[in-house]
Amino acid sequence: MARFKVRWGRLFGMFLVAGLLAGGVKLFTAELPAAPAHARAVPDLKALPEVEVCWLELSRSDVWGQLGTAGLTRTGTWRNTASGLLVRHPQGDVLIDAGYSPNVHEEVKQRPPLARFFNESALKGIRDRSTLAAAFQKVGATPEGLKWFIPSHAHLDHLGGMVELRQVPVLLPAEEKALIEGWRTRKEVFPEHAQAVEGRMTAMAFEPRPYENFDESFDVFGDGAVVVARIPGHTPGSIATFVNLSPERRLVHVGDTVNLVESVERRLPKSTLLQFFTDTDSEAARDQVARLSQLHELAPELQFLPAHDRDAWEKFFGSAPGCVKAR
Ligand SMILES: [Zn+2]
Fold it and tell me: Separation of 97 CA from ligand 1 center, angstroms?
């Protein structure tokens, strides 16, 4: 009988080399395929109302740049922010995102072990925390002026702050409303946050009206100042929110579909680690990155605002939180 001797050391070495090679190749081939060609529906921005937009910073941290995008990122340090975007419109104020809950350290203790580990690691480095009330005050506004709260998506660092604002009506896509209402079985949403907004959520009525490179859109005030498009993937009801101050001064808040503007410039998805831990559907999210990248090419005047890219917020607002008008 022939004897076959397994050389474990050699086998392990072969696997190690293969793994390193695969990882190395992945670093240099992270660029996504281009999104399918799509005509641009240029928005009509001739009759915009006078709108002001304000940056409410709720906490910040410094993160290793390589966690920001897949592939070899050019960002050494990812200057991370958790911020609210306040739009002051003649018909009432709108707040996009609300940061962490003031009780976040207690809330994460109730999470399943892997989620708890991930959340607690992310919370370790955060500093300069502010309540929503204090952040409003800093820019001369109050939460009482809010007509709507619009979450870019329902994760803890975007919805959590709503435990402070239990009266404000919430406007969001039907998919994200369903995600929040399903918190007992869908673990993406914290029970405390779902309960804080329960009973006062309204689903956005998207219309088949093309906007930029999207086939449908929802215009919050009906005047072109604040327009929402769907970018499902990071969560089922993730959104991109356009705020138009003037034809030249425009931004699009893209939530956590990308972490850094570099992602839309180089068509790179988020890091593999953050795709794994934070995306509901990473493949769909990557398609949305390609679409946002296409939008960046079609509308170069548009400032992209990934929720956590402090450099991008600084580019639009200046080095500290404050407000910006059309002129
Ligand atoms: Zn986030």
Answer: 9
